[in-house]
Design a protein that fits this description.
single chain; mainly alpha; Arc Repressor Mutant, subunit A; Serine Threonine Protein Phosphatase 5, Tetratricopeptide repeat; 3-stranded antiparallel sheet; two-stranded antiparallel ribbon; 17 helices; elongated; TPR repeat; TPR_rpt; Tetratricopeptide repeat protein; TPR-like_helical_dom_sf
Length: 312
């Protein structure tokens, strides 16, 4: 109990003030660590007072045990059902915005290992990470020091039942799959010297980064190389789209510590950037900063490496 109370204290700043009630809450949720964490975060957010939360959990507990329709034989299943009931109650006390509901809904399609928060935000066309960060604060979305996000299995189960994810509802996230299931040539067509891409380029670039996050960089690189060839054939190898694909290739090679290839693709990208943004040197500087900020933990100093990559 003491260890779990200390855990609650980490997330709920007034735990000591309401210690007797907090300890009863811990007991009511059968000392499940994740349930204790969610309860503490809920209290910290001011959504419920300790007494209100305790009463709600006790009512839910009584209702669960009196439900004749629930017939569970094995102890393991009974424990899981009780645990699910506690988490479900805590989840229901939050009023999530429509944006947060959509995020949770789409996250049901993610692998349990999670993906980069920034990549996921790009997929959903979110302008900022604010909504994702708010969900992290609630405890519903889990994160690591590298900003990889995922849903706790129990939260995923509840989200599936609550939000009813579907291809239609989650079409923005799933569109990239349709793009890759058909030949990229069919979605990138030349017309009057213009490249009509219907968002295919950013989708494929994001997918390549996703594959890299999932330890499949070779597949991601292959998709980007095909995309580079298509852009070059139908448009040019001196345009902004081509530069962005080269930058993504350079980033993946940098993440996998293949410095010679990273150098080649970064130099191609920045050569185009410097030409297009001749009168906007701050844009070049912003590109340096963007890469430095996105990948600070890949094993070596990006700032020094980028400088040497582009000048040697």
């Amino acid at each position: 109990m003491n260890a779990l109370f200390q855990l609650a204290s980490v997330f709920y700043s007034e735990a000591d003030t309401y210690r007797p009630t907090v300890e009863k809450i811990i007991e009511t949720v059968h000392s499940h660590t994740f349930a204790v964490e969610l309860a503490a975060k809920l209290l910290e957010n001011g959504i419920s007072t300790p007494d209100q939360l305790l009463t709600r959990l006790q009512m839910e507990k009584a209702s669960f045990h009196n439900e004749d329709k629930i017939k569970i034989i094995q102890d393991g299943e009974s424990s899981k059902a009780t645990y699910y009931s506690h988490i479900h109650t805590l989840f229901s006390l939050y009023t999530l915005s429509l944006e947060q509901q959509d995020i949770m809904c789409n996250m049901c399609f993610l692998p349990s290992t999670g993906i980069s928060a920034r990549i996921f935000a790009k997929w959903l066309e979110l302008p900022t990470l604010n909504e994702i960060n708010d969900l992290i604060e609630t405890g519903f979305v889990q994160t690591t020091t590298r900003r990889t996000i995922s849903l706790h299995p129990m939260i995923q189960e509840i989200t599936l039942s609550k939000t009813k994810p579907s291809v239609t509802r989650c079409h923005i996230l799933l569109d990239f799959q349709a793009t890759l299931e058909t030949k990229p040539e069919k979605t990138i067509k030349p017309e009057k010297d213009a490249l009509h891409i219907n968002d295919s380029i950013p989708q494929i670039a994001n997918y390549a980064m996703f594959l890299t996050e999932q330890q499949e960089p070779e597949r991601g690189i292959s998709e980007l190389q095909k995309l580079s060839g298509i852009i070059k054939e139908y448009h040019s190898d001196d345009c902004l789209d081509y530069a962005k694909v080269q930058e993504t290739l350079g980033t993946i090679y940098l993440m996998t510590a293949n410095l010679p290839q990273a150098k080649t693709h970064f130099k191609r990208a920045f050569k185009i950037y410097e030409k297009i943004w001749t009168n906007e040197p701050e844009m070049i500087e912003a590109k340096y900063r963007e890469i430095q900020e996105l990948y600070p933990q890949i094993g070596f100093s990006i700032e020094k490496t980028l400088s040497s990559l582009l000048t040697k």
